[in-house]
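Journal club prep, notes for RB
We'll compare a predicted complex against what the paper describes. Inputs for the zinc ion case:
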Amino acid sequence: MELGSINHLALTVSNLQYSEDFYNFFLGFMGYEQGEKTEHLILWFSHNGVVTISPANPSSPNQNHDRYSPGLHHLAFSADSREQVDELYQKLVDRGVEILDTPAEYDYLPGYYAVYWLDPDGIKLEFVHTPNWPPTEHPDSC
Ligand SMILES: [Zn+2]
């Protein structure tokens, strides 16, 4: 791993079973394999790293994730091509997933092409293809 690269990502979900199916679906599309599974954690791994989900504290208020509150705003995964972005989009639609923004080119960087959707708890997810990544110029946003 390169210095400072993201090593793993650990998310908390309200319904572990439901989110397992959801994450397995799109992480599998992206080449992740499911690994360790306990009642406290489910793990996926690929050559790009590790993603885990864990159940929320049952005593926590049951509320959707708010990306405009302190914490995670959204999480983006890289695509190899625009066609992959379109393909995942179609699979998300077929599955009835709530799409935030359909595949389109965005002005953040030249050629930035992405789709955005919500996980079962309202966490915003993104699948993006950029011709040149990491950026050599400062992105406007992303
Ligand atoms: Zn983004």
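Talking point for the session: Residues 74, 76, 126, 142 surround zinc ion (CB under 6 Å).
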